[in-house]
Write a structure and sequence with these properties.
- The structure is a single chain.
- 21% of the residues are buried.
- The chain has four helices and 13 strands.
- The protein is α/β, with parallel strands linked by helices.
Length: 219
């Protein structure tokens, strides 16, 4: 099974605790952090913690298998969102059907995919928008492809942030007339800041290791 950013952050937290407790050296911490943030699957993450004791009670050990922790998929909802002289939105945890139809006339629609569950690897958002706007929010690691037609309007899409060929895809189709589709990429909660903090710790340890090597060469 493929590991998520949250899984990598959990393992990085465990390594930070092990470093603070003196169980691993700064050099070992830096090497293992490299493995953590390059890991794609649980199998690659598991050896990083194999020689460390379980976390202090009552916190449970990080379970990298998660076979029994995956929640059931959310209940299906209507695949149609309509806004006429008004607005509509969909957010939170929801099941994305293979095709979601978004229609707006003199209105606006907001769709948040950050906690959504995709029914398959590539889903389609078919937009019909006249004198209105559609705003989509997607999490990191999701590829957005614009295949729609815009007349006196346009798309504002983010650049791809992943080279993974198996990354989920949201494809935009349909027609935009005197309107626009805007897509932004944002993290859920503060995970981005947590990962940045771990990378900063990693950078400091790398610098310390380089300084130690220089001192040894000077001797």
């Amino acid at each position: 099974m493929r590991a998520s950013d949250a899984d990598r952050d959990q393992v990085a937290d465990r390594l930070r605790e092990a470093l603070a407790e003196g169980r691993i050296t700064p050099e070992e911490h830096a090497e293992r952090i490299d493995v953590v943030y390059n890991a794609k699957t649980y199998a690659e993450l598991e050896p990083v913690l194999s020689d460390l004791p379980a976390a202090r009670a009552p916190r449970p050990r990080v379970d990298l298998r998660k076979d029994e922790q995956v929640p059931a998929p959310p209940a299906p909802q209507s695949p149609n969102l309509v806004a006429i002289f008004g607005g509509a939105e969909r957010k939170g945890r929801w099941l994305v059907e293979p095709t979601t139809n978004v229609s707006c006339v003199f209105g606006g629609v907001d769709v948040d995919f950050r906690q959504a569950v995709l029914s398959r690897g590539e889903v389609t958002v078919n937009v019909t928008c006249v004198f209105g706007g559609v705003n989509l929010v997607v999490p990191p690691g999701v590829r957005v492809v614009g295949s729609n037609v815009a007349i006196f309007g346009g798309n504002d899409l983010p650049e791809d942030d992943t080279t993974d060929p198996d990354a989920p895809v949201i494809r935009l189709t349909g027609l935009v007339l005197f309107g626009g589709v805007s897509v932004t990429r944002r993290e859920v909660g503060g995970k981005g800041r947590t990962r940045d903090r771990h990378r900063e710790i990693h950078r400091l340890h790398q610098e310390r290791r380089a300084e130690t090597r220089e001192r040894r060469r000077g001797r």
